[in-house]
Amino acid sequence: MFVLKSDTADLRFPPVELASPEGLLAVGGDLRAERLLEAYRHGIFPWYSPGQPILWWSPDPRAVLFPPKLRVSRSLRKTLRQNKFSVTLDRAFREVISSCAQPRSQRLGHGTWIAPEMIEAYCVLHERGFAHSVESWRNGKLVGGLYGVALGSAFFGESMFTRVTDASKLAFVHLVRQLVLWGYTLIDCQLPSGHLFSLGAEEIRRREFMEHLERALGQPDRPGRWRFEADPGILIDNQLPSGS
């Protein structure tokens, strides 16, 4: 296992091919914005439990969703048409990531909490225009959402939460629709789950993921606060594929 030093100008990571069979690549370092962005550019992300050192992962295979392949079930499409929720971009980033930090299903066998230092680190990325949130609202209350990091034409999904059935799925669908309009080519889902597979995610080998990532990073970034360019519901029938 590779050990990274903190408080150093050297932000390099070892090649992802050297990760363990579970995908663990390195331990240590810090969560400063420059290191986080360097990690994402090389297909690496942090995940660890409170009390552990920072753990850096690059799993193989990798769960991804190619935006044009988004799958929307008939029941979710019905919910979209009912306009039960309003959906926004970058309106409540800290509230979204803090909600994602609440107990949830385990991932990679580690803890179920996003540590306070991770919340602060991603809020810095948000302030710098690289991390974004999507929010679902009902009656003025935040009931679901997700956050992630955007570089080039790639969006790296980090976590989602829901307090009302379909609230996070609806936020994700609206995000993907907007990413398609902006020409995004890759959504990194990191690890597989039935929830993501139901929306069209698939598993690919790490080598293939890195090839897609390299092409995506060749496109310009879209930093700053994001906003929907049109009413998220207007193009549902014409631009979202239906599912079974």
What features would you highlight for this structure?
244 residues; alpha+beta; Alpha-Beta Plaits; Aminopeptidase; 2 domains; four-stranded mixed beta sheet; 8 helices; 23% strand
Q: What's the CATH topology name of the largest domain?
A: Aminopeptidase
Number of strands: 11
* Number of individual domains: 2
CATH hierarchy: architecture of the largest domain:
3-Layer(aba) Sandwich
Name the average pLDDT: 90
Q: So, the CATH homologous superfamily of the largest domain?
A: Leucyl/phenylalanyl-tRNA-protein transferase, C-terminal domain
Q: Tell me about the largest β-sheet.
A: 7 strands, mixed
Percent range for β-strand residues = 15-25%
Can you give the helix content as a percent range?
Answer: 25-40%
Shape: globular
Assign the structural class, choosing from mainly alpha, mainly beta, alpha/beta, alpha+beta, or little secondary structure. alpha+beta
Question: Given this structure, which CATH class of the largest domain is correct?
Answer: Alpha Beta
Which strand order does the major sheet show?
Answer: 6-7-8-9-10-5-11
Low-confidence parts:
106-112, 234-244
What is the rounded distance between the termini?
44 Å
Question: What's the order of the H and E elements?
Answer: EEHEEEHEHHEEEHEHEHH
Radius of gyration: 17 Å
Q: How many helical elements?
A: 8
Please explain how this structure is put together.
By secondary structure, the chain is α+β, with helices and mostly antiparallel strands. The protein contains eight helices and eleven strands. A seven-stranded mixed sheet has the order 6-7-8-9-10-5-11, with helices on both faces. The protein is globular.
